[in-house]
Amino acid sequence: MINLTRWILSICLLIGGLVHIDIFSIIYALLFLTIPWAFIHSTVVRLRFFFILSLIALITSTAFLLIIGSLHIFSMTNKGENVFSIECSSNVRILQHFGLILWAHTTHKIIFILILIINVIIICTKISKKKERIHCFS
Amino acid sequence: MYENLKKKRKNPLFFIGSSLATLITHNRVGIKQNSRRQSSKETPTIHSIYSDHFQSIPLRIRPIFIYFRSIILLVLIHSCGCLVPSILSAFYFLVSLGLTLWWALGKHFGQGYLYIIRLLQIYSILHLLIIYLYQYSFIEQLFLTPNTQLIRLLGLRSLYKNSCLENANQSRNDNWVIYIHPFVILILYWITIYEYHLTRKYHQRLKTLLQFPQNNSQTFSSNTYHLHSITDLFWIGPSNNPSQSNIFYQTNSLLVALISFILSKAYMLSIMSMLLWSITYHSYLTLPYLILACLIWLLPNTKYWCHFCSIFFCIYAYILLIINYIHLLNLIHEEFSWRIHEIEFLHTNHQYSISIRFYLKCSIKFIYTLLLLLSLRQRTKERAHQRHRQSKYLRLFFSQQK
After folding, report:
1. In a 10 Å sphere around its CB, with 0-12 CB exposed, 13-18 middle and 19+ buried, how is residue B241 labelled?
2. Is a pLDDT exceeding 90 seen at residue B248?
3. Distance from CA of B122 to the nearest CA of A (A)
4. B104-118, B127-141, B309-323, B381-395 — which one is most confidently predicted on average?
5. Which whole number is the average pLDDT over B17-23?
6. How many other CB atoms are found less than 10 A from the CB of residue A49?
7. What residues of chain B lie within 8 A of the CB of A102, using their CB?
8. What is the ipTM of this complex?
9. Nearest C-alpha in A relative to B197
């Protein structure tokens, strides 16, 4: 189970880092690049490493979901519609760096759903890891 | 029967005898176990270290695995350098050239190999981060307008479609090679970490072995068993001394026998590579190879002449490879043209594109160079062997005179 969650976390970080380029994805990419160091160390270090890794991933993905969610709620309002109406406006470009994807394109919809799935998996991995940890120490 | 046994058990002598017998056997078993433990704790031989190094791999294919591990690493370094030729990738290309030359000159890597691997790790992660950061539209916008030439020479390309950047999308190249390149660098990064870990472990084990005074005589053999001079094992051949028997020949693998036979004819391979190079990439620059290959082939002592000239062939091959790499550096006609009397010495790319043909061209030439380096390696090995034999005879001569 521990190995499985590790692999899931690694794959999620890789996909999360590659699917869309924004400020959150670079955190995923950096976390992914640190993974090989864990595999060459002892089990105790590895366990601790993956715990910290999943914790950072969880914080990042939660922040990402909150920002994306609030932005989409904002885009539904009258004021938001004006802001997001022009795709290449400076406002939208800035927001794109924070992971905002406009709903205009089908590919973007798919990407957004994928990102959502990845984040949910990361959260699930984190929860299962915590359970394992509690189980180990008890 | 049962009564007889009962009687026997009642007998005190029977009890004493049986208890003594169990005591003696128990002691003997204990001594045997202790001696076994001591012998296992004793000096770990080079064979045990070598064979324990990859316990998960079957013994039959273990040497081949170690041999191919080095080759895979070299192929990856070369691929990182040649998939998308650029100034940033040139480092990998130069490292691969340096490693092969160092190997051909018969030098042992030792601690230096660890530094190279560590350097590759740091460089590959930095390279990956540069490629990744360049994908941000604001960074792309920042660099694209003022420094288009520099960005092109650095081999940075936008891998993501950005509808807001017209300039960037014009310069986008949709060839699959540019998408593969970051993944190859990532694989190299992973493998270098694994390689560093394994090599460091191997060095530590060797250090512990050399601490024991009994094994000082095996210092030389420890060098020959070094992972990165593993091709020597194909040239050493099976020894008559059972204590120093070669693990390669214990495997009785047909592939090992085949490789050792091919490597024994390294000078022939060099001549063939020279002929092939001049035929596949015919130009004025490769013409000397054709002439020299035919000339050496006609000479009576082909092996001697091939070994004698091998260093010059290798230097020339390196010059050709570097020229080829500069040619593949995506230089455009206006920026760079080296002409004397309207003769273009260094070709420039008329098309702004990257394709797998560049990589294949670079790789085929690199393979030809490796074949040329084989004869240089054989020459250095034979010279070292000759020197060793001469010093042995001299020692024997002086000891007899005394």
Report:
1. exposed
2. no
3. 11
4. B309-323
5. 51
6. 17
7. none
8. 0.78
9. A40
What span, in angstroms and rounded, lies between the C-alpha atoms of B303 and A1?
60
CB contact under 8 A, B132 and A29: yes
Q: Which of A29, A33, A40 sits opposite B197 (nearest CB)?
A: A40
Which pair of structure tokens corresponds to residue B19? 């208890």
Q: H or E segment at B343?
A: strand B343-346
Q: Please state, in angstroms and rounded to a whole number, the distance separating the CA atoms of residues A112 and A98.
A: 13
Shortest CA distance to A66 belongs to which of A11, A27, A24? A24
Where do the structural domains in chain B lie, given as residue ranges? 58-208, 258-402
| Cα–Cα distance, B275 to B278 (Å, whole number) | 5
Residue pair B99/B116 in contact by the 8 Å Cβ criterion? yes
Domain of A48, in residue numbers? 2-137
Sign of CA dihedral A51, A18, B130, B94: positive
| Per-residue pLDDT reduced to its tens digit, B88-114 | 999 999 999 998 888 888 777 677 788
pTM, two decimals, is 0.75
Please judge whether A36 and B132 are an interchain contact, meaning their C-beta atoms are less than 8 angstroms apart.
no
**How many structural domains compose chain A?**
1
User: Which residue type is seen at B185?
Assistant: I
Q: Is residue A110 within 8 angstroms of chain B, CB to CB?
A: no
Contact call for residues B122 and B52 (beta carbons, < 8 A): no
* 8 Å CB contact between B87 and B330: no
Question: In which band, very low, low, confident or very high, does the pLDDT at B363 lie, cut at 50, 70 and 90?
Answer: very high
- Shortest alpha-carbon distance between residue A130 and chain B (Å): 27
How many residues make up chain B in this entry?
402
Q: Show the tokens assigned to B339.
A: 């002409």
Which residues of A fall within a CB distance of 8 Å from B164?
A: 87-88, 93
Rg, chain B, Cα only: 30
Two tokens, residue B76: 């990856």
Q: Tell me how long chain A is.
A: 138
Range name among B90-104, B123-137, B166-180, B318-332 with the lowest pLDDT average? B166-180
The closest CB to that of A97, out of B138, B190, B193, belongs to B138
Within B11-61, where are the H helices?
A: 12-41, 46-52
> Of B140, B130, B152, whose CA–CA distance to A97 is shortest?
B140
- CA dihedral sign of residues B319, B321, B322, B327: positive
Closest CA to B121 of A26, A52, A40: A40
Q: Which of A91-105, B2-16, B38-52, B320-334 tops mean pLDDT?
A: B320-334
- Tell me which residue of B82, B378, B114 sits closest to B235, measured CA to CA: B378
> Has residue B273 got a pLDDT over 70?
yes
Higher-confidence residue: B11 or B153? Answer: B153
- A29 touching B, CB under 8 A? yes
Task: Write down the pLDDT at residue B157.
Answer: 80
- For residues B152 and A13, is the Cβ–Cβ distance under 8 A? no
Return d(Cα B127, Cα B186) in angstroms, integer: 10
